Amino acid sequence: MTRPYTIALAGNPNAGKTSVFNALTGARQHVGNYPGVTVEYKEGSALHEGKKVAVVDLPGTYSLTAYSPEELVSRNYLIGQRPDVVVDVVDASNLERNLYLAVQLMELGVPLVICLNMMDVAKTRGLRIDAAKLSQLLGVPVVPTVARQNQGMDDLLAAAVQVAQSAPEWRPLNISYGSDVDQGVAELADILQGAQERRGLLSARWLAVKCLEGDQEVMDRVRETPELADKLLPVCRRVAAHIKSTMDDDPDSIVADYRYGYITGITRQVVSSEREVRMDLSDKLDQVLTHRLMGPLFLFLVLYGIYNFVFWASEVPVVWFEHFFAWLGGVVESALPPGVLSSLIVSGVIGGVGGVLGFTPLIAFMFFAIAVMEDSGYMARVAYIMDRVLRIFGLHGNSVMALMVAGGISGGCAVPGVMATRTLKDPKARLATILTVPFMNCGAKLPVYSLLIAAFFAHFQAEMLFLLTLISWGLGLGAAKLLRVTVLKGEQTPFVMELPPYRAPTIKGLVIHTWERTWQYAKKAGTMILGVSVLMWAAMSFPGLGPEQDAAWQKRLAAAPGQTAGLELKAERARQELAGTLAGQAGQALTAVTAPLGFDWRANVALVGGFAAKEIIVSTLGVAYSLGEVDPEHSQSLSKRLAAEPGWNPLKAFALILFVMVYAPCLATVVMIRRETGTWRWAMFSVAYNTLIAYLLALVVYQGGKALGLG
Ligand code: GDP
Ligand code: MG
């Protein structure tokens, strides 16, 4: 004979657990004590289609922390005994509070059935609860019951046995706890991953969350393995301290806030009341900010406001930075004898890195705006509003967070964007999101846009960036839809949007968030971009003119009749010299492909370099154009140089912007896609897919624009 199934009953005190237990087991029950603790223990058996089913009544708890013996007993029973199914008895008249335990059970991953008890009480209080919708959103069976009157007990037993029969794997629910906590959890989970076998079947992420919450029991277990504790505890302390300083609260209360946010996202859709309900400030704000019409309108205004603010605030400091690097270049130029060393420092280092660092104020203000949105809780509302739109394109509510992180409002990064898709459970929607992430306007594309916008669309800076945001969303969503009706065809599963309570951001938190991200940007300019920039400089400097050619030029220059003719000759010489270099030859070879898009060989070189990191595009153009600089006495900022360059015009600049927006994701993103999808296939697909779309787009825009006489 096979072992009977075991059903464990969990639930808040007074939700009706004992009533359900009695209704299921009748007289077939006995009472005991858990070993070592004075917590009561009840076990009995029910009959389902003639077969015995064991039923265990766990102590009533509100939570699954390790604060009380009841909670610990319940949790250890679930983890140690692994019942075939857990029935969570929920008080329907008090759904919000009762679902807190349900969410924790789901985070643990147990096979779950929700017993929606006290339906009679809910009714007399004027509450209508859509059990089917609740079941759909949670992804678990929900059975409405009135335990005191034995109503719904057969359905409940049948639902529980059915889940037990299917012998489901434990599937932990991953909810987002906001970017600070999520990042910390990911870091801790990576460390715990290696020690997984010894932790039983608990997910690394669950353990990581428990560590951050400061769970005593889990911490004690971690300490049993000193090598693990040595690695884990310092990280844990650092992450907790960071959260404390940015959010002005402990990790466990932030986690609790986001759990309630998840629950609010559910109850909004599931519960309706016939009577006036008491609303707190968060609810009142949400009435406007997540309203079907006013919500999107407000979002539109916020984004437009942000772009205007960012350009207004950064205008002056960006000019300071530009002047500073131009001045620095001039100083070095006059201090060093002309030659390779001077060229390396002025063009390779200052021209390249300075071009990127020059945009630091712009980036910082953008990060500041994003920090305000995130820290206040408004970002979660943006996700909530956008959810309705995203579904049309085969994406999910949680795709929004990934897309936002990647640069949905300009200035993110695709690498954490790809990582943020981990909260998506549906593999096809997740893959579609991963492949859409590179379309967003990450912080590295911003300097390219700013450069070209300043050169060719100077009067419409904020408007242009706003337009580019809309375009990138349009293209990204279109590309997602294309994937979802072809290679990633599949059903959509329902999804819960989290609505954590609003918080007033703290100045300290905003400063830290802005500083961290800006510093990362600057660090990248100082390291990787410096390296690639110097490489690009070398490729654009060598082999250079041979000695005979050089001598020939010297002669021509000496024979030049006047100042102006001399300058023209010098420019001619510089062009020829550049064209003969390695990069020049490569760029020229590519012009066969890019000529229909209007890109010259220097743009080609920059685009090839941009595959390493998109900021390289600016630094390479900087190197290319300062190498071509005729008159170092009047060195201008790169945007002025481009604007004055005869081969450039607004149409070409716009085609280039679009190409940069869409073409192959940078190397770091490609590696991350490989890591998150587990195969190089999707990483390579992403490179090909994006580059193809970019090419077609730039082709249509440039050729179309020329046909309309815009060139
Ligand atoms: P426990 O603490 O979860 O074990 O809850 P109990 O089963 O002891 O129930 C608490 C109280 O709620 C008792 O007075 C029950 O009779 C009552 N009760 C249980 N289920 C229902 C129900 O569905 N409707 C109503 N109106 N009362 C119920
Ligand atoms: Mg009881």
What's the short story on this structure?
This protein is of the alpha/beta class and 711 residues long.
Helix and strand arrangement:
Elements: E1 6-11, H1 17-25, E2 29-33, E3 40-48, E4 51-57, H2 69-81, E5 85-91, H3 95-108, E6 112-117, H4 119-124, E7 127-129, H5 131-138, E8 142-144, H6 153-165, H7 179-194, H8 204-213, H9 216-223, H10 226-247, H11 251-270, E9 271-273, H12 281-289, H13 294-335, H14 340-357, H15 360-376, H16 378-392, H17 397-408, H18 414-419, H19 427-436, H20 445-456, H21 461-485, H22 507-526, H23 528-541, H24 547-558, H25 563-579, H26 582-594, H27 601-610, H28 615-627, H29 638-644, H30 650-662, H31 667-677, H32 680-707
Parallel strand pairs: 1-4, 1-5, 5-6, 6-8
Antiparallel strand pairs: 2-3, 3-4, 7-9
Helix pairs in contact: 3-11, 5-11, 7-8, 7-10, 13-14, 13-15, 13-21, 14-23, 14-28, 15-22, 16-17, 19-21, 20-29, 20-30, 22-23, 23-28, 24-25, 26-27, 27-28, 30-32, 31-32
This protein binds guanosine-5'-diphosphate and magnesium ion.
Guanosine-5'-diphosphate binds next to helix 1 and helix 4.
